Amino acid sequence: MQFHFDGFRPGDPRVSVANPHAPLHDGDATPSQVDVLIVGCGPAGLTLAAQLAAFPDIHTCIVEQKDGPLQLGQADGIACRTMEMFEAFGFSERVLQESCWINEVTFWKPDERNPDAIARHGRVQDTEDGLSEFPHVVLNQARVHDFYLERMRNAPNRLEPHYARRVVDIEIDPQAADYPVTVRLERLAGPRQGEVETVKARYAVGCDGARSGVRKAIGRQLVGDSANHAWGVMDVLAVTDFPDIRHKVAIQSAHGNLLIIPREGGHLVRFYVEMDKLGEAERVASRNITSDQLVEAAQRILSPYTLAVKEVPWWSVYEIGQRICDKYDDVPGVGTGERFPRVFIAGDACHTHSPKAGQGMNFSMQDTFNLGWKLAAVLRGQARPELLHTYSEERQVVAQELIDFDREWARMFSDRPRHEEEGGAAAGVDPKAFQAYFEQHGRFTAGVGTHYRPSLICGESTHQNLATGFVIGTRLHSAPVLRVSDARPVHLGHAGKADGRWRLYAFAGANDLQDRQAGIHALCEFLSQSHDSPVRRHTRPGQDVDAVFDVLAIFQQRHTEVAIDHLPGLLLPPKGRFGLRDYEKVFCPDFKHGPDVFDLRGIDRAQGALVVVRPDQYVAHVLPLAAHAELAAFFRRFMLD
Amino acid sequence: MQFHFDGFRPGDPRVSVANPHAPLHDGDATPSQVDVLIVGCGPAGLTLAAQLAAFPDIHTCIVEQKDGPLQLGQADGIACRTMEMFEAFGFSERVLQESCWINEVTFWKPDERNPDAIARHGRVQDTEDGLSEFPHVVLNQARVHDFYLERMRNAPNRLEPHYARRVVDIEIDPQAADYPVTVRLERLAGPRQGEVETVKARYAVGCDGARSGVRKAIGRQLVGDSANHAWGVMDVLAVTDFPDIRHKVAIQSAHGNLLIIPREGGHLVRFYVEMDKLGEAERVASRNITSDQLVEAAQRILSPYTLAVKEVPWWSVYEIGQRICDKYDDVPGVGTGERFPRVFIAGDACHTHSPKAGQGMNFSMQDTFNLGWKLAAVLRGQARPELLHTYSEERQVVAQELIDFDREWARMFSDRPRHEEEGGAAAGVDPKAFQAYFEQHGRFTAGVGTHYRPSLICGESTHQNLATGFVIGTRLHSAPVLRVSDARPVHLGHAGKADGRWRLYAFAGANDLQDRQAGIHALCEFLSQSHDSPVRRHTRPGQDVDAVFDVLAIFQQRHTEVAIDHLPGLLLPPKGRFGLRDYEKVFCPDFKHGPDVFDLRGIDRAQGALVVVRPDQYVAHVLPLAAHAELAAFFRRFMLD
Question: pTM for the whole thing?
Fold first, then answer.
């Protein structure tokens, strides 16, 4: 954590200095003109708001239909990948401390000798070793909102949501010179209830859920399965003799199926309970299902174990359904160079899932983490508006992949267990196949399965062999290293904060400490001095040298062999009004705690490698250290001088 | 972190439910009658206040002479031991995130070829491996205060300090039936400035620094060295080419000595600069030393490296002096069974150090962490008042040991470096000996050197061989384990929260899973059923079974072999209004991440061991699991039925 940058300041370093030029607000009224209007204070909307709040020069407004912050969560599972993103937002430690960690999953099926009772038949580790430095955890969605809201409140512009606002209509004028989006909002509460406010925005983002008004306004539709299978979900405080109650548990019983998710605090547990199949045209709402029925179903499934429910803080019944939009923005068709997106949709507004794979909230947050830096780069004049096409291009494809996985998973989950003697051709799902599917798809449920294809902002895999463990198009897989300046063990990926910056991880070749004409030294020379350097081309005069590109170096030698006073100045750059040096850019393997990052991530030891990482932590490119021209050309594709 | 215990509650789980019976306060006036009056809002006072705030039935008041919370810290070093205590208070993660970690110390001396310049001659790890699960860190004292204040504010009684209060006088009436301490406080600010408030207290604790008014009121004196050696200390934001600026560095140069401590945020650095020797009767105040002089001295010492100071947020000049009181309470003499302490002093009020060993703040907090649970136990009717004698008995002895260490360390630090050719008999300190002394005394500087002698609350070492790594009288040295109920890797010691409870860590013998007549099963049977059981004798009816004694079990087998549904009920006790089970009391070795806690802490695998741990995390006793009568007798010595 870096602070006291521009002078010592007492108090909490997470509270930024207030921006003296922040837009003035008229009491609780929404502003009449903004850069970005976000509709919806769910996980997608808050991720975007928290991201944009990092930039004092961007005027953001976020509105929400409900009249205050969420108190009781719907979603609760937080994938490893989401924790990595929380780290970039600075609150992963808070979540780690407060959440329930999912360490193992156990599988239960009907006891072969007494099929009315259940018996444990399998136990697997929840997340494969080394998949992420973070565990899979469970925490009330409301608390995740709280952490985002705190981050927004502590940001330079002190961003706060405007609650009790309903979108009346949205107009987009593609011909308008500026502020082409006009949104009318009705106030749903307070003394000015019923009044309509008009907000003109450069961009609007609908994070307003499965019934998104923004989606309707841009004429897009969720397409997918109609569902005829009802599931109940409930959070309970209960007393039971079921021994795995603090594990994640998948139960296939003669009385239906049940998924158990332990919750934060050591006592709360979530049950997903299979209810009867619905008729073809039947809806859940017509069934009058009660929480007592859910409890009774859970008790039947858990037999011979007992379950005494003491409190049900939250419950719901839902139908399974996977649906998706074909495009996530307002530009018709594809590849239209003429028109650039002005309105986007994200999260449940463009894809819905069954809750079983625990992906709804996680995937929604990744949507807007993808969008946030792109909006910021265009608004701040760093990138061309073509960049905005990549949001829908990237996110729609990976959502479709997730939905295919989710559909299969939900089908298996809802199917009846097949007995061993029934053989392969019989109906129902083989419990062993079910467990195998779970294990195979661990990367998806951990959230690290997303793999963007080559595009404007993702390079080709020509040089992938230089760093086989940093796969282009996937998120940067962090690894433990030692920081040279203070010999502190740190995670390499944690240098990546949600600050809109690109990161160039330069892994040094074997001789790079000595050879001052090549490798890291030559790269730094190019980046600092050349007219073609992306650092020079895309960083404004007066900005810190690392304001757009954060150049980090990783040497192969022990930290005691790396003399920081002999390194290129770009690796210890002077910054801020005092020109204080930044000592947190040079790393080496952590030989003591191991393993060596060069081995772990398959770095070519002779040549080294340059790993280019996007502001949303995805690997954009892998290049030789000497590929100066290629590097410059990559950024010229979408960045402005 | 356990919560949702008595029902689901939205919001931050660290904010306790407010106590509806909390004493009513008359605006900002101090209450007229309290259980404990704490004088002074420094580290010692706040540790005590945060500890007592855990108990809704104890009425605590804390007053401070300054008119608000500290903004700029004096102390900054946080020892490993202190981090362990912060973990018990629930804010170690916050400190880890925000602080600077000290990983290595480098040693510099005059260059043999050019004695005017300095050269590095040594480098050591700051803390020996495995000494603590926490690193040695550095963070502004003001932030430590903030975390304590937040904890107090979140506690059931919402404890807040009363600022701008000066102690006028203190009277103790040893004959009084109740509230024997009368303290008069003058208001130093606000509309009622100058008014005198009178507070009657059961106990008063002076945490009011080296010039303690409380100490004077009980007629005690700080005794020790007069100092004639001046040191300057300054926090700076500076640009330098000195390569070790982010390490802790001890420099002995031809131009004087310098200690460098890197600070939080990546830029701030603290310098301790040796100034000239003072004359015999001279004081620092008479020297008119300026911060410019400190900067110049640092520049001379660092030569040939440059130092450009950009900002000096804080600086001071002090004289070295180690002083201590012979007793820390108001009872004259020793072993007086007739009279029990009513007034205590803690922290700088009873011992002062040089800042070099980084022990002032750390040791002060350990004083009141020692006192807090004792006061609470007596006030809550759990323990006899004899217990209060042990505060001075334990803390005064270990402070003397620390001062002896500190004196030698400070002497070495202030001495001139001896050249190699001068040989052993010459004056000055050998740089190698200096480094060796530092390494040898790592346990002291890490804060884990404290070793209480056998007493009312520390047993004899008769059975120490059963658990050689948990030394009676030292702090519980935590170790990694796996929690059986959810297969989560946790730290065994982190079960110990600052909640005033005793912890009985029962390490199972090899056959304890099977043998239901001996070992753990027999111990749990005794503790649950016997009339002699300390759990039954000292826990009130209606309290949770673990309200006074938290019984935890550690088995030798893999977690998959420990069937929690076959364990004694005491290890999964029903608690709270719903009788929800507590699943966080059973552990096993973490075979995956290793090492095995039984090997690491030398537990007798055949017999197992019972490790009795005090509320302040110190090991009180090691006993065989079957020593039921000895266990009961130990607690009968000082606890009430």
Answer: 0.94
The verdict on whether omega for the bond into residue A115 sits within 30 degrees of 0, i.e. cis, is: no
- Name the nearest CA neighbour of B464 among B346, B349, B612: B612
- Cβ–Cβ < 8 Å for A283, A319: yes
Give the model confidence (pLDDT) of A9-59 as tens digits.
888 998 988 888 887 666 789 999 999 999 999 999 999 999 999 999 999
pLDDT band at residue A432 under the 50/70/90 scheme: confident
Residue pLDDT, tens place only, B516-567: 899 999 999 999 999 999 999 999 999 999 999 999 999 999 999 999 999 9
| pLDDT mean over B171-176 | 89
Kindly state whether A17 is in contact with chain B, defined as any CB-CB distance less than 8 angstroms. Answer: no
Q: Which of B93, B311, B488 sits opposite A8 (nearest CB)?
A: B311
Separation of alpha carbons A136 and A445, rounded Å: 9
Cα nearest neighbour of B2 on chain A: A265
A522-543 exposure pattern, b = at least 16 Cβ within 10 A, e = fewer: bbbbbbbeeeebbbbbbbeeee
Look at the alpha carbons of A20, A26, A29, A30 in this order and tell me if their dihedral is positive or negative.
negative
Residue A268, pLDDT score: 96
Name the average pLDDT for chain B. 91
Among the partner-chain residues A71, A104, A263, the one whose CB lies closest to the CB of B10 is: A71
Residues 81-110 of A with CB under 8 A from B: 93-94, 96-98, 100-101, 103-104
Instruction: Please report, for residues A341, B145, B166, B405, the alpha-carbon distance to residue B365 in angstroms, rounded to integers and kept in the order given.
Output: 58, 11, 22, 19
**B247: nearest CA partner in chain A:** A486
Look at residues B387, B89, B407 and name the one whose alpha carbon lies nearest to residue B225.
B407
Task: With H, G, I as helix, E, B as strand and everything else as coil, classify residue B324.
Answer: strand
Which tokens belong to B501? 């409870």
Q: Which residue of chain B is at minimal alpha-carbon distance from A572?
A: B241
Contacts of B103 in chain A (CB under 8 A): 486-489
In the numeric block, the tokens 């055949």 are attached to B606
DSSP secondary structure string, B276-297?
EEPPTT--GGGG---HHHHHHH
Q: Is the minimum CB–CB distance between B564 and chain A shorter than 8 Å?
A: yes
d(CA B428, CA B406): 18
Cis check for the bond before B304: say yes or no (omega within 30 of 0): yes
Min Cα–Cα distance to chain B from A492, Å: 16
State the DSSP string of B119-182: EEEEEEESS-TTS-SS-EEE--HHHHHHHHHHHHHHSTT----B-SEEEEEEEE-TT-SS--EE
Please give the C-alpha separations between residue A87 and each of A99, A138, A312, in angstroms, as whole numbers: 15, 16, 32
B531 and chain A: CB distance < 8 Å anywhere? no
Task: Give tens-digit pLDDT for A118-144.
Answer: 999 999 999 888 999 999 999 999 999
Backbone angles phi, psi at B437, to 5 degrees: -60, -40
Tokens 């005069």 map to which residue? A541
- For the cut 90, the answer to whether the pLDDT of residue A401 exceeds it is no
**In sequence order, what DSSP letters do the residues of B43-95 get, joined into one string?**
HHHHHHHHHHTT-TTS-EEEE-SSSS--SS-S--EE-HHHHHHHHHHT-HHHH
Closest residue to A103, CB basis, from B1, B487, B582: B487
Mean pLDDT is lowest, of A53-57, A628-632, B27-31, B42-46, for B27-31
Cβ-Cβ contacts under 8 Å for B247 (sequence gap 6 or more): A486, A487, B102, B103, B104, B105, B106, B260, B262
Query: Can you read off the two tokens belonging to residue A129?
Result: 């070793």
Question: Cis before residue A304, ω within 30 degrees of 0?
Answer: yes
- How sure is the predictor about B165, in pLDDT bands with cuts at 50, 70 and 90? very high
Give the separation between CA A376 and CA B72, rounded to whole angstroms: 36
| pLDDT per residue as tens digits for the range B270-281 | 999 987 655 555
